[in-house]
Design brief:
Shape: elongated
Structural class: mainly alpha
Distance between the termini: 73 Å
Order of helices and strands: HHHHHH
Strand content: under 5%
Radius of gyration: 23 Å
């Protein structure tokens, strides 16, 4: 299952009948776990694509905001399969993507900052340290 959210999290977010309607392609009257897992994997992949700009992934520990964002993405993915995305789901998805964009640029941060990989990220000006200068104004003057 996912690194950030589970099928139990989706079941908490969506009513059982809605979750069945969004996943049950075979009309068996039950949640299709494979469809559910695919929606979760896609949501977490999208989250990671933004988070990896500033953090090591998977992010750990999983904060409440990470769960919320991944759930918003997964719910939108499930509705998109049916071609009808309710306006509230669209709004939640837009807010999630806006937040992810801010996360990727550092305008919002995760409290789990120990996952940050500053050695691998370009975040601003750098300082170069080296040995003694070989060429100076004095050594380059004509003799």
């Amino acid at each position: 299952m996912g690194s950030y959210i589970t099928s139990a999290d989706l079941a908490t977010r969506l009513e059982s009948a809605v979750l069945i309607a969004l996943t049950d392609d075979a009309n068996e009257g039950e949640v299709n776990a494979a469809v559910e897992e695919q929606a979760i994997a896609e949501a977490e992949g999208e989250f990671n694509s933004y988070a990896s700009a500033r953090y090591g992934i998977p992010v750990s520990p999983v904060e409440a905001m990470v769960k919320k964002i991944c759930l918003d993405l997964a719910v939108k993915n499930l509705y998109a399969r049916r071609g009808r995305i309710p306006e509230d789901v669209r709004a939640d998805h837009k807010e999630a993507v806006d937040w992810l964009s801010k996360l990727a640029t550092g305008k919002v941060v995760l409290a789990a900052a120990e996952n940050a990989s500053p050695d691998e990220r370009v975040t601003g000006a750098g300082v170069v340290a080296g040995g003694e200068r070989l060429f100076t104004r004095e050594t380059l003057k004509d003799s």
